């Protein structure tokens, strides 16, 4: 019996259009926020492998938790931010000045 394949059997990656799913990542779409166009990608729990800090609530997103990655359409790759899904949906209702507690890690 041969071992299970973890990768799809496709050759190369095909070009994706807006709203299509990728093999490693989730659905991607554009969203308007504060007069700018943002690219928003849904990340599944299986694809989330690192710790991230959510800019909406300033809390940690542990590995294995589904979340959202958002960046400006004409921004750099370094400008991507990882948000909790609820924080991304409530970004207009959140205050801009969140304070981190003394015991919170600084990364």
TrEMBL record:
Composition bias, Basic and acidic residues: 15-28
Biased composition, class Basic residues, residue ranges: 1-10
Spans annotated as Disordered: 1-28
Protein name per its UniProtKB record: ATP/GTP-binding protein
Source organism phylogeny: Bacteria, Bacillati, Actinomycetota, Actinomycetes, Kitasatosporales
